[in-house]
Write a structure and sequence with these properties.
Layout (H helix, E strand, L loop, with lengths): L19 H11 L4 H7 L10 H11 L3 H6 L3 E5 L2 E6 L2 E3 L14 H7 L13 E2 L4 E2 L38 H14 L14 H5 L1 H13 L10 H5 L4 H15 L11 H4 L4 H10 L3 H13 L6 H5 L24
Antiparallel strand pairs: 1-2, 2-3, 4-5
This protein binds zinc ion (2 copies).
Length: about 325
């Protein structure tokens, strides 16, 4: 604990399903501080990936149990030479599962509830099932990406309220069901029913991290001509692009079915096999590894054993991992 640290005078209580960073922003705002000032007060150097000691100091400052705050902040650690992540009670195997840059929000939820949902920090959550609209990651007024350096949860750095861009197209049912399921994974007390069709129980069994990788493996390639580069794998997608990816994955999953037969060749050609291989070897849950191995077998492939033996190479930093207080310029990749 920093010797001079004392709790902030105005306390706020954390809501169910609320994002830890969103809660800290609310606390900072209530006390006339910016998020950056709050982090400096707590001596936090990397707000995107706070350390356990950072969380202790932040929790003390805002008057909340450290365990409660830790649950809703993304944490990163190295385990057996591999990076892994913890968020909302789940283990995650890749930073690409998160929106570390360009925060997503539902302006209607912010207006009604006054807080940011933890599920919005997941890259694969692109819709608000409650308001049947796409999440936004840019301010409608100034066009900049929304980040945590804004003055309040519902106010952009340009000083104007974050508002919806206007009526959106009808949102795809499969993507809405998927986001509802994700929300339930982040907050079991959510009033939204957990909705994935029974025929996709195999996907749910892979847990949120495994399901994310399966969706990306199935939905990233638009067609067989679309070759995927490394920068494509780590590139930050807009919510609309990610929705298309989720929709494609669900359409393709209709061809998979619960049996164990071989998958059609046209489908196999569209699947990101290396991603499934990584999931088969390093998935956060045994059930996720099992699902990936089964899919690979149905593609006439095996999880390569040499991947398990290969020393883990730390991935180079990419734009999706830029720090919390970046300048908000759009990604150029
Ligand atoms: Zn909403
Ligand atoms: Zn703005």
């Amino acid at each position: 604990m920093l010797p001079e640290l004392s709790s902030l005078p105005v306390a706020r209580s954390m809501d169910d399903g609320e994002s830890g960073l969103g809660f800290l922003l609310r606390c900072a705002h209530a006390n006339g501080l910016s998020m950056k000032q709050l982090m400096m007060l707590a001596g936090v150097r990397t707000p995107t990936w706070p350390q356990p000691a950072d969380i202790m100091r932040l929790a003390f400052l805002v008057g909340i149990a450290p365990g409660r705050l830790a649950q809703t902040l993304r944490q990163r650690r190295t385990q057996h030479g591999r990076r892994e992540f913890e968020f909302v009670g789940h283990r995650w195997t890749s930073a690409t599962a998160f929106r570390t840059r360009a925060v997503q929000i539902c302006p209607e939820c912010l207006r009604e509830r006054g807080h940011c949902r933890a599920v919005w920090e997941l890259a694969a959550c692109t819709l608000c099932a409650r308001h049947q609209c796409e999440l936004i990651d840019r301010c409608r007024h100034c066009g900049t990406l929304i980040n945590w350096a804004r003055p309040a949860v519902d106010v952009c750095r340009c000083g104007l309220y974050l508002v919806a861009p206007g009526p959106t197209d009808r949102i795809p049912c499969a993507a809405a069901d998927w986001c509802r399921w994700l929300e339930h994974q982040c907050d079991a007390r959510s009033e939204l029913a957990m909705l994935l069709p029974d025929r996709l129980s195999w996907l749910a069994s892979a847990g949120p991290d495994g399901a994310f990788h399966i969706l990306m493996a199935l939905g990233t390639r638009r067609d067989v001509m679309h070759s995927q580069s490394t920068s494509d794998t780590v590139r930050m997608r807009t919510p609309a692009e990610m929705t298309q990816c989720v929709v494609r994955a669900f359409e393709r999953m209709a061809d998979i079915g619960p049996d164990s037969g071989l998958l059609p060749r046209e489908l196999v050609d569209l699947i990101d096999q290396p991603r499934l291989e990584r999931l088969a070897c390093f998935g956060a849950l045994e059930s996720a590894r099992r699902v990936a191995r089964q899919l690979l077998r149905r593609m006439r492939c095996e999880a390569p054993l040499e991947l398990l033996r290969r020393p883990w190479r730390t991935a180079p930093p990419f734009k999706g991992q830029l720090e919390l207080f970046d300048d908000g310029r759009p990604s150029t990749t």
